[in-house]
Specification:
about 475 residues, mainly alpha, CBS-domain, Tetracycline Repressor, domain 2, 3 domains, two-stranded antiparallel ribbon, about 5% strand, globular, transport, MgtE_N_sf
């Protein structure tokens, strides 16, 4: 049985990364120094080999004292060339666990550097649900070869898990769980558990099934321990429990875990047969991935290796920046139509950016709240109208406070009451537009099956900038000239 080192906390993991980076610098320095020696110098070649091996041994020793999750963190924090060097020095017994821990973009890089024998060795000891996680990134012939070494039950489990789309409960469920019958005593259950080498991770409840594996209830470990051993399972099991379907969205499942403080939950099919379970560890991964995707989506980005080639980074980042450039150009064109107004009252050129900026900020505040509410399923067709009304009321109240400040500022630098009034009116109107769009844009994107976070801020900025300039300069043209 492989003994896995303890996990490090965040600070210690960062210190471990810095230690590895220092060793890599020394390794690179030695190689550069030796390369300066004349080619064909036998003595230099011997020295190079000894020094390289010395640093590799030190790196190996440092790495293999770390938990696979911490090694995964280090691999994600290194450029591709250094990442592959570190990967080659990691103890092979940790390869499978590390591949499960690293992000997808690092996993693809590592797998591409491994030969067939290494891939087979890394996957041979993994469970069916873990193999299903890796299968999309593995060559098809490796997956086929791995299946040959599985039992019929494991092979069926693997094919079942691989059959569910990414983002569903079925794709992340595992098959290690404890099940018992309802007509046995707690003493029998305890004896059965003692025969096991260990309980599956995060076992807080035992699943009670009939002879056809249909789920009848759940027996919590606490109930098992505190009740009389002669009591039957049926008398203490819970029949009021949360179960999930394999096609349920994993984000919805994560929300249920958060809402009900769950540690594990059974997964059943249409016939109520128990086919797997999901645990809090799976849900934490789902929540983390969704959070990362939302953070990237707000900037119009997709997940990418931070050390990816420049060309790949440009392809990822340029589309929404070009769209933003086009929208900004549109706003500039609108402003140019009021050149005469601005040339007569130059102070307007300084004030109009405030109107556009405040409208965009107001809308972004609303949009952030709405995207978060959509993610946890709190917005429905029945509360949409009341949500829109609420945002209008909040924006008007906040806007009045802001317009007083903005009007005072405008009057102070321009000395004109009319400019201050135009400034206040335009700012309040643009804030209301921003609030309305902050609700509508993400909701409509979600309704049409698009990620509400992707590009929403770009669309919002385009409208608040364009309309902000138009409203402010239009009012100025009407009332100030």
């Amino acid at each position: 049985m492989v003994t896995i080192p303890r996990r490090l906390d965040t600070e210690d993991a960062q210190l471990a990364l810095e230690r590895i980076q220092d060793l890599l610098k020394k390794h690179a320095l030695v190689e550069n120094l030796v390369r300066r020696q004349e080619e064909g110098d036998e003595q230099a070649d011997i020295v190079e080999g000894l020094l390289r091996r010395q640093h590799e041994v030190e790196l190996e020793h440092t790495l293999n004292q770390l938990h696979p999750a911490d090694i995964a963190f280090i691999l994600e924090s290194l450029p591709s060339e250094q990442r592959r060097l570190i990967w080659s020095l990691v103890n092979a017994k940790y390869d499978g666990d590390i591949l499960l821990e690293v992000d997808d973009w690092v996993r693809e890089d590592l797998i591409s550097s491994m030969n067939r024998e290494d891939l087979l060795a890394a996957t041979e000891d993994l469970d069916a649900d873990e193999l299903a996680d890796l299968a999309p990134d593995l060559p098809a012939d490796i997956v086929a070869e791995v299946q040959k070494g599985l039992t019929n039950e494991e092979r069926a489990q693997l094919l079942e898990a691989m059959g569910y789309p990414e983002g569903t409960v079925g794709a992340i469920m595992d098959f290690e769980m404890v099940r018992v019958r309802e007509d046995v005593s707690l003493e029998v259950v305890l004896r059965y558990l003692r025969r096991l080498e260990e309980l599956p991770d995060h076992t807080d409840q035992i699943f009670v099934v009939d002879r056809q594996d249909r789920l009848q209830g759940v027996l919590s470990i606490s109930q098992l321990l505190v009740n009389d051993p002669d009591t039957n399972v049926k008398d203490v099991m819970k029949t009021d429990y949360l179960s999930l379907k394999p096609n349920d969205d994993d984000t919805d499942a994560a929300s249920a875990f958060e809402r009900y403080d769950l540690v594990s939950a059974p997964v059943v099919n249409r016939q109520n047969r128990l086919i797997g379970r999901v645990t809090i560890a799976d849900m934490v991964d789902v929540i983390r991935e969704d959070s990362q995707e939302q953070d990237l989506s707000r900037a119009g980005l997709h997940e990418e290796d931070i050390f990816a080639p420049v060309v790949k980074a440009i392809k990822n980042r340029s589309p929404w920046l070009l769209i933003n450039l086009c929208t900004a150009s549109t706003a500039a064109v609108i402003a140019s139509q009021f050149e005469g107004t601005v040339s007569h009252i130059v102070i307007l050129a300084f004030l109009m950016s405030i109107v556009a900026g405040i409208g965009g900020n107001s809308g972004n505040q609303t949009m952030t709240m709405v995207i978060r509410a959509l993610a946890v399923g709190r917005i429905t067709s029945k509360n949409f109208t009341s949500l829109l009304k609420r945002e209008f009321i909040v924006t008007i109240l906040v806007g009045f406070i802001g317009t007083i400040v903005a009007a005072g500022f405008s009057w102070a630098i321009s000395g004109s009451f009319k400019i201050a009034l135009v400034m206040a009116t335009a700012m309040l109107c643009n804030m209301l537009i921003g609030a309305m769009l902050g609700v509508l844009i993400p909701i409509f994107r979600d309704k049409f099956g698009k990620d509400p976070a992707i590009g929403s801020s770009v669309l919002l900025t385009f409208v608040t900038d364009s309309l902000g300039f138009f409203i402010f300069l239009g009012l100025a043209s009407i009332f100030l000239l």
